[in-house]
Amino acid sequence: MIDQLVTANEQESYSQLTIREDNIFVVNGFFTEPGIIENMAQTAAAGIGYQAMKEQQDKPPLGFIGQIKNLHIYYLPKVDSQISTEIIVENALLNVKVLKSKVSIGQQLIAEGSFKVFIENI
Fold first, then answer.
1. Cα separations (Å) of 107 from 7, 82, 84, 103, 115?
2. Statement: the pTM of the whole predicted model exceeds 0.85
């Protein structure tokens, strides 16, 4: 659910996605809430997978979202909008990461929230 992983390191990931009419999460010309959440999760997964590849791990780790907190979706982006998603690692302990996410169009924030990810094989 991302077009491009723009930046990724141990502390943050940044992606972009252009909303297309044929996207499974588009309804009546708007990218819906589940699509925004999936975009956040895929941005986190792409960043974690990139780090695993950079560290030459045999295979990317498997992750599971355990909790979503303080999710605020301020508005739904229209088809043909390009959203940018930023994931920041707020805390990490053993195989659990607490991530903060912000989704925007240009400088306008459209969604934000935090989630816990449980990761295997790290």
1. 18, 12, 10, 10, 23
2. yes
Domain encompassing residue 85: 4-120
Residue 90: how many CB atoms within 10 A of its CB? 12
DSSP per-residue codes, 20-82:
-TT-TTEETTEE-HHHHHHHHHHHHHHHHHHHHHHTT-SSPPEEEEEEEEEEEE--PPBTT-E
CATH number of the CATH domain containing 57: 3.10.129.10
Distance CA 96, CA 52 (A): 15
Least Cα distance to 89 among 38, 43, 35 occurs for: 43
- Predicted local distance difference test score (pLDDT) of residue 121: 64
Q: How many domains does the chain have?
A: 1
Render pLDDT for 73-111 as a digit per residue (tens, 0 to 9): 999 999 999 999 999 999 999 999 999 999 999 999 999
pLDDT in tens, 16-26: 999 999 999 99
